[in-house]
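Retro notes - structure team

What went well: the batch runner handled both jobs without manual restarts.
What didn't: labels got mixed up in the shared folder, which is why I'm recording both outputs here explicitly, each with its sequence directly above its tokens.

Job 1
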Amino acid sequence: MQLPLPRGPITARLFDALTRPPHAFEPAVPDSPRPALDDDDLQLALFACYELHYRGFDEVDDRWEWDPSLLRLRQALELRFERGLAEAVPRPPAVPPAQLRRALTELVAAADRDGPQLSAFLQHRAGLEQFREFVVHRSVYHLKEADPHTWAIPRLHGRAKAALVEIQSDEYGCGRLERMHAELFRATMRGLDLDDSYGAYLDRIPAVTLAIGNAMSLFGLHRRHRGALLGHLAAFEMTSSLPNLRYSRGLRRLGGDGTARRFYDEHVQADAVHEQIALNDMCGSFAADHPALTGDVLYGAACALALDRRFAEHVLARWQEGDTSLREAGLAVGLP
């Protein structure tokens, strides 16, 4: 993946530094009137910092990953991001471990009841170009699906660890390349005549979408957030089966074949099973072992639900205005 185009003073300075060998530089995170979750410059800079822990960028020296200057910048960016999350997502009260399953279920049910129904729109009303836009948004995560949550594995023990490994094993296709969920999503992209290479559309992705992936990486890369990461994954699994059924039906309505729909079809059944594992064996066992962290688990779930709601509201609002939900980056005015 190539470094994207800068979106402001933070990314301009960061990308300039990253294209040279690692060196000491004094990062600055200027104040911005924009909320952190909607700040393109902030979210892209944070995404780039995190990406060095994943596949990196072609023109960036791998030694930047743990460079002290870069870590200082990332810390400053994370402070703004965490404040933005705290302002946008009310922290649910902690509950006794035995009540965590019920609290998570109620949290998800409330979000489903009150949130915008993007999946229903994609099933019944979306045109082909709108569905392709949706897939482009989701490619930021789905092309590295499961990787952020995998950071939690070495930070757990016992039953919670075994449960997470069971979920992640399915996400990675149980060791079979053609069954890996990231590979299935690449097939969906190809079926829609989209570029399936990693990061191909990063310049088109707005802050509201980057924030979804950045929250996963924030929780995954800090041990202190391991409870939030598990709650985030649980919310993902609990809100997956029905929307993916709708996505599959919508893509079939638009002419998508079985190969293009397989990613969504796979999640309908797999995530129904993962939901129970995540609720009972993963989060339940973690809460029993760490009763003081049940509030963190619920907060991680609340962040996942709130960020997804903001994304859906953004997409639907733009479409209702007859506009694209993607950024117009440079001269890129349309999808290939």
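Job 2
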Amino acid sequence: MHLANTGVSDILLMEKISYPNHKVCGEYVSNEVLPYLKSFGFNPFDFGAKDISKFELTTHNNKTITAQLPLGGFGMSRYELDFQLYKLVIKAGVEVLQDVVENVEYEDDYFKIKTQKNGVVTSHLVIGAYGKRSSLDVKFQRKFIQKKSPYLAVKTHVAGDFPEDKVALHNFEGGYCGVSKVENNHINLCYITSFEAFKKFKTIEDFQEQVLFKNKELNALFSESKPQFENPLTISQISFETKPTIENHMLMCGDTAGMIHPLCGNGMGMAIRSAQLASSVIIDYLQGKIKTRKQLENTYSKAWKQQFSFRLNVGHGIAYLFRQNWLAPKLLLVLRWFPFLLPKIIRMTHGSIMRPVRFSEPIMSDIKE
């Protein structure tokens, strides 16, 4: 959207799936990205998003603390959010090709993108934004893909009672569950756990009954609500390993470049901000402000690290501490004694308010088939 609305022409978006569809996601988005989204003509509240200003945290042994969110956020399903942005992309004149990318090769300052159904597409610039894990990561021999990740996630929507203005994070032994309302008054329940903790049980239902429901808040949410999905969505092999921001000369974006722990509740905000960073440096490159590809790649990498390295490190630290079941209640006790610390910690995993996009004259981006 940023590139299209700033006047970059000849943009091709490749998607292996059709819209709309559900994805495993916490579906809470920090308000830091709101002005940026609105500059494209997208206001999530026009589509039923929930305005969230309160935060609640519980430990596996049912200790609770609450706080006001420093910036606040909104709750919106990926089903609706992605679909509405997809429609805006089409409206902006971007060509969308529904196909599977099998490989990307770089030669003589051009990329050759091999697709499953449409042959080879060539382009001078490529952004990799294909999510947490893909067969492309194997093709590129990315280091993180060579390590087996111990995490899996489960998501469902339910109908029931839950405050519209609150996002909750409920800890249980081996993981934590995020809870917030989205459009249609559905409640999004998305939890992450270790495979080690999960493998002791035969089914998702058994795991929830024996582990999640020891947290009384989760027990109430699941038992007093009505499922809206026929079956929960699951994803495994979730990696929080450090990833290169440049791979085979491609600018990596969103979860493809790096993931913050869901415990911090800001994955979507990071993904949107990284799209802004990638778009900005590409525009400078196409306008001649950045002279070479090497300078383009270095500028993006530096900007990405400046923006995200600190919050990722904080996220890793927070997640590690809360994985220690004996320690989590003690940390919560400290936060109860010093409640001003919680908003400060939240700020450390979030950024400042993003600026709206300023539009300009059309710029050629040189994509060829």
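One thing worth noting from job 2: The chain has one domain: 2-368.
We'll revisit the folder naming next retro.
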